[in-house]
Each structure stands twice: as C-alpha cells, then as structure tokens.
Design goal:
This protein is mostly beta strands and 131 residues long. 0% of the residues lie in helices and 46% in strands. The strands form two sheets. Strands 3-4-8-7-6-5 form a six-stranded antiparallel β-sheet, with no helix packed on it. The protein has a three-stranded antiparallel β-sheet with strand order 2-1-9, with no helix packed on it. The chain is globular. The N and C termini lie far apart (81 Å). One of its GO terms (biological process) is positive regulation of cellular senescence. This is Protein yippee-like. It comes from Loxodonta africana (African elephant). Keywords: Metal-binding, Zinc.
Length: 131
C-alpha cells in the first residue's frame, strides 16, 4: 500500500463576507422615512404621493420610489379600490414585511398606482430633519 505522508498545510481560509444589504443611504439633507425595526432608509419625503391609504394593518403611505426594499412574487388581490396585481415588499435589512408594490391596476381610475409602493405606518419612522 502506498504510504501517505503528512498532508500539506491547508491554505488560509478566505472569508467571503456577504455585502450588507443596507446599501442605499438617502441624502442627509432630506426628510426621510426609515424602517421602524432596523432604521434602514426606505424613502425620501419628496417621494411621498399620498397619506390616505389603508394597509392590511392600518394606515399606510403611497410612495413613488423606495430603497432597501425587496419584492416578492406578484399576485392578484381584491383591495378596497378593486382588483390589483400586487407584490409584498420587505425591508432588505431585517426582512420585515412593510407593505406592497402595485404591479398592475385593472381599473382605469387606479392606473396611477402602477409601479408605486405602499408602506404601512407601523413599519416606518420619520428620520432626519422633521423639526
């Protein structure tokens, strides 16, 4: 039987760290909304479209754009304003479900919501410069 000598030293382990998903930081000179659970930035006040929305757990705001948010698969749901295709959104940092994204509105009066985001008030806080 062949004789096996001592094993060569193992190469130093290279640790590949996953980049932090809390990657988008909104400008400090703007009023902004952050995740109530982990403080990840979510949206600038300038991107707020409406405060008169209803989420599944209470009041919600409609935003034109958001950051640090991941999107689930779209599904059709009957909401207060009719049938919509929506995708749940979550904070990329702490994975908390925040609200949803309107992918498609089936009624012409609701088309303005397409591509916009609902974030429920109980999942966000006002951050930076609200005084």
């Amino acid at each position: 039987a062949p004789r096996v000598g001592p094993l060569p030293p193992a190469p130093a382990m290279v640790r590949i760290s996953k980049p932090k998903t809390f990657q988008a930081y909104l400008d400090d000179c703007h009023r902004r909304y952050s995740c109530a659970h982990c403080r990840a930035h979510l949206a600038n006040h300038d991107d707020l479209i409406s405060k008169s929305f209803q989420g599944s757990q209470g009041r919600a705001y409609l935003f034109n754009s958001v950051v640090n948010v991941g999107c689930g698969p779209a599904e059709e749901r009957v909401l207060l304003t009719g049938l919509h295709a929506v995708a749940d959104i979550h904070c990329e940092n702490c994975k908390t479900t925040l609200g949803w994204k309107y992918e498609q509105a089936f009624e012409s009066s609701q088309k303005y919501k397409e591509g916009k985001y609902i974030i429920e008030l109980n999942h966000m806080i006002k951050d930076n410069g609200w005084d």
